Structure prediction request, 399 residues.
Amino acid sequence: MSIGHTLLGLLEKGPRHGYDLKRAYDERFGQDRPLHYGQVYTTLSRLLRNGLVEEAGVEAGDGPERKRYAITDAGVTDVEKWLSTPEKPEPYLQNTLYSKVVLALLSGRDAGDVLDTQRSAHLVTMRELTKRKAAGDLADQLICDHALFHLEADLRWLELTAARLDRLKTEVVR
Amino acid sequence: MRALLEATNLRKSFGPTPALDGAGLSVRAGEVVAVMGPSGSGKSTLLHCLAGILQPDSGTVRYRDAELSSMPDAQRSELRRTDFGFVFQFGQLVPELSCLENVALPLRLGGIKRRAAESRAREWLERLEVTGVADKRPGETSGGQGQRVAVARALVTGPSVVFADEPTGALDSLNGERVMQLLTAAARETNAAVVLVTHEARVAAYSDREVVVRDGKSREVEPAR
Prediction:
């Protein structure tokens, strides 16, 4: 995720200092990966250098970290452009699991075992996400659903591959 | 812990086609087990044999200390009414009865008087968050509501095992999830085991572990640590 654009987006509501921005980011987007202070300040200085934010005063009784930042017009344009540009869909063509299946078939090992082991591991993660979703708020539910749908896609591929193992075997060992 | 329900080496053919070819499964009390596998793999046949709806050609099904596979039909029917609950994909509610009467039906069949049966049925409709449809007929409810009524009916007798065959198959994602949440939560509260047949991983994720059926053979998977 683009941290710069996310921080810019958070600044659209009004000026904030670095610590405040980190807290806002972590609360909304940092569930599994909170920002380091270092990342916040490096990003802010880059945004400052590029004219996307500007300093907006210093809070009383403070060191440099209490400096407040405001988004500039150029910053707003940048956020708008980012939001309206679609993310590049992942092609998902580099697939470790596919390689494992082919190598298992080539070496005469049981490719079905490879798929079964993977299904089990996927389901363990899906169970954890399902529990987290049940205990969480709407934000948690949406984040977990995103992960669950991706894992489900893997599993559908896995089932389809399991059903075509015999055919794949005749093709790869030819 | 000892298995509550255990099937061993089940074989079952329909004409020349083998549906089960040595499948087995064991379920402990209070456990939610997902039976997964592609269409036609034999998972529904396995569920029907476990529940005593179908008799296997060979192999055994034990429930507590009884051998289901050698029990007379009448005794198996009685056991299904007293100890088992069922949720199917659709078509399980009696269309002429109200939802409340549908939920009360298994209790009425067990000899409980109408008032007591309907009062308990109402509690279950409340638990499944569908008291609003108590007086409606199944045909007047949405798919999600109908399925919750079916779950209430499956649980109203306090069964030890609930058999659910693609219980969310006809529902959209949100309704399907809610049905799964309510079904598994109610089963866990009452310590009922659930045998859940599904081909959907998101539904299977509500289970404690999965059993995979392929070509009539099953493979039990203990949860990875």
